[in-house]
Design goal:
CATH topology of the largest domain: Aspartate Aminotransferase, domain 2
Largest sheet: 7 strands, mixed
Distance between the termini: 48 Å
Shape: globular
Number of helices: 15
Number of strands: 18
Strand order of the largest sheet: 4-12-11-10-7-5-6
CATH architecture of the largest domain: 3-Layer(aba) Sandwich
Structural class: alpha/beta
Amino acid sequence: MRKTTQYLKSLDRKHVWHPFTQMKEWTSDEILVVEEGRGAWLKDTDGKWYLDGISSLWVTVHGHRCKEIDKAVKKQIGQIAHSTLLGLANIPSILLAKRLIEISPRGLKKVFYSDAGATSVEIALKMAHQYWHLKGENRPWFIKFSDAYHGDTIGSVSVGGIKMFHDIFSDLLFKTYRAPWPHTYWKPRNYSLNQWKNYCLTQLEELLRKKAKTIAGLITEPLIQGASGMATAPAGFLKGVEQLCRKYGVLLIVDEVATGFGRTGKMFACEWEHVRPDLMCVAKGLTGGYLPLAATLATDKIFRAYLGKYSEFKTFFHGHTYTGNPLGCSAALASLNLFKKKRILEKLQKKIQTLQSALLPLKDLSHVGDIRQKGFMVGIELVENKEKQVPFLLEEKMAIKVCRFARTQNVILRPLGNVVVLMPPLGIEKKDILYLANAVRESILKITGN
């Protein structure tokens, strides 16, 4: 018997603890219970459809109920749902590893599976630390960027920089060096973008010049920091970071969890500046938004350091129960096949332009301070005073209110502080892009009173 919406909501309030949610307020808020998805749309238990403006938290690539991925997962279920990679291999994980290496930046040769973006980062950090240990060097430090976000496990939080999320856990974290991120909007007003970029790179080089021999690696989100409000860096900054890592002999770790699989307009954001990392973390869109699966890709140089006799204990002692899960790997293979078969990246370029053009009218709104876009990753900065760049107080919850009102326009959005985030599925149709942009504009107008 089908449960009623009200009954489901009451059970949710009674038993479910939601992530990044103030549960005292949740119990009095109106809950939307999703029952079905189709393309870029979600249907709730009352039969109402909503445009998925955030790809179900940045994971849905081709759309919900993609027939090719549905078919691949069903076929795999007919064979086996899970088999461990500890002491065994399975077909989908082997084939997926080959495909990932083929499409990734040159130099990456090995694939280590896990199940989430945070775990892929944890693995990269541990790999980098142990690599130097195996080389006979003690390098316990990492460099992170201000306002970075790499996940919510202890290691990934250690290399994060968002105070609201991370400060409470400071006693649990390992120590890191912090380098400035050249946010293109929240920069010193007397600096040009190029001056700001060069200043941040100079600060990074000064740190490396003094401390490089103690640093295992530098970790960065390439081009754009997602969770800090789609904070974009000036062109050339990522390449400059890579060059400094090479100059001072520090491993470069790129976190492509949010930016990978077409989100920025290329398969990986690294490709925009021809960057070749030592370690690369991927997750989110890897399976097209179907199943939890992540991977950490490494160079042969790093992999070879772990080779030796059993008695030498050079093994990378790390693993997860569902590492290389066949269902997830099958979904990922189907998704990557669609990129090639349907020329997803090629067709995406016009959609990116459509989205950019559709958002242009928002720049004239008096409480929109900035619109940051890289491909299908968009952050709309809401400010109290546009001319003086005065932000709204977080207690005013302006972006939250905008996203809530957007639901009355049949659109699902997600705020990050004062930023309204848009990240629709790559498979979204043009008419839905226009619908999304218009709904966002109407929501901002209603809430901010432009």
